[in-house]
Hints:
4 copies of one chain form a homotetramer.
Chain A: E1 2-6, H1 9-26, E2 31-36, E3 41-46, H2 54-68, H3 72-78, E4 102-107, E5 110-118, H4 122-142
Antiparallel strand pairs in A: 2-3, 2-5, 4-5
Helix pairs in contact in A: 1-4
Protein name (chains A, B, C, D): Heme-binding protein
Pfam families (chains A, B, C, D): HbpS-like
InterPro entries (chains A, B, C, D): GlcG_carb_metab_protein, PduO/GlcC-like, PduO/GlcC-like_sf
Amino acid sequence: MITITRLDAADADTLIAGAVAQADDLRVPMCIAICDEAGQLIAFRRMDGGKITSSTIAIDKAFTAAGAKKATHEYGAISQPGAPAYGIQSAIGGRLMVVGGGLPVVMNGDVIGGIGVSSGTPDQDRQVAQAGIDAFQRSIRQAPAK
Amino acid sequence: MITITRLDAADADTLIAGAVAQADDLRVPMCIAICDEAGQLIAFRRMDGGKITSSTIAIDKAFTAAGAKKATHEYGAISQPGAPAYGIQSAIGGRLMVVGGGLPVVMNGDVIGGIGVSSGTPDQDRQVAQAGIDAFQRSIRQAPAK
Amino acid sequence: MITITRLDAADADTLIAGAVAQADDLRVPMCIAICDEAGQLIAFRRMDGGKITSSTIAIDKAFTAAGAKKATHEYGAISQPGAPAYGIQSAIGGRLMVVGGGLPVVMNGDVIGGIGVSSGTPDQDRQVAQAGIDAFQRSIRQAPAK
Amino acid sequence: MITITRLDAADADTLIAGAVAQADDLRVPMCIAICDEAGQLIAFRRMDGGKITSSTIAIDKAFTAAGAKKATHEYGAISQPGAPAYGIQSAIGGRLMVVGGGLPVVMNGDVIGGIGVSSGTPDQDRQVAQAGIDAFQRSIRQAPAK
């Protein structure tokens, strides 16, 4: 057997709250999804005005980042024409996302989940996802015995 | 043009909080999804221990209840062998749910969204969905000027 | 965070070997799939002569048993016409299996994975899945310090 | 009628064992899939730590290599912008893989199956797939009367 550590529902709330605060600062309503380390959805929020096309994209960015243990913008770089992973963006029925905005959540070197953000530019999405992770990292440092 | 009234993200929080409280009372961790009146996902939560097979089921129950303006258990009755809607459970790639636990959210006679719950028995799922709606109705009465 | 225990690749080998031995006894070549507790595929084997239509069915039985923490034949009973979960067999794009042959793998009361078997009658499939679990349980007792 | 020669379950074990040994050497846990000449899955293994996003990708690489009788990296070259097979990577619901790591298994000039590997870089995936084929070829030479 293997023992795994993963995000719980309270962690997902913290990640979403951090992302929402950043999205509010940017004045861009976002779709935000949190997956566990197995790529399974834990929580989702579409802010008022978030794009309905972004729901699935946010969920799939979180799935990709958690499952592949890689930021989606890294896939963006290596899936360009001529690059080694060209074509990967159509894989898994199109669920493998190579557009920025999906980040793995890492603790002690292990991927324990993923966050995916969509509705802004890829740079905005990535910034909002990072803000979610920053909020989560702060919450861990404030409650080290958790 | 048509003007539509629908649930917003804060309403979704209220619905989920009411459902979570009931699920805690039942000691059954649930997947809970909220859709707007167009059947589009607003919010989702998988409580710690909620079944991963229930994520899609909860989302599709909310989608069905909001979009078809009907409780999913009502579809359960009319989709039995020999009944008029027999076979409807396979429609929309299997997204049309006929198992109890999906309820439309209604205000002034209009469907403004849907809630879908899954992980318990269909009766438990329905009870938890109703608790979400009850919490939402209380929040409206307490804030009549909204 | 949550800490989870799940099947590893060596456990999957043990489960498959136990199932294959029973399938050989029955002289029915089977498709056998092992998922982790999150419903993600770990291992699959189609024995020579196993049905190609059974590959997806075996994988989805393992997914259902692991993810829903329930034997697929239990869903068979509660999804009959007039029963509470009628219609659930079309859920998740048809991945939720209600035909016997999918069993959760349980240790210390926790579901740590699932096994799915297909190609025989549902009773044969279930018998072969159980033989896989029996082999796994024996392996744990023989190596308690693992 | 046509008589077909294809990989059997024991061959699949040999292919996977060869691939796993190479993956261990590279210290990259991999997902490895073996299909028969009809593109149908025979065997699959996700090594401990293999990416869950790579399960479907490995299966689809094996499917593509066996069914199209071509290495997936060859499709990578001819599906670049401006090249003759541009766009093929979205075909078959995204199952046609153009990223390296899928190789046909050939005997006496006939394709008798395929191996697909995913979780590393495309070069690592391809190297591991080749190691599986090498092990299979050695096993044939050692048992010429098979």
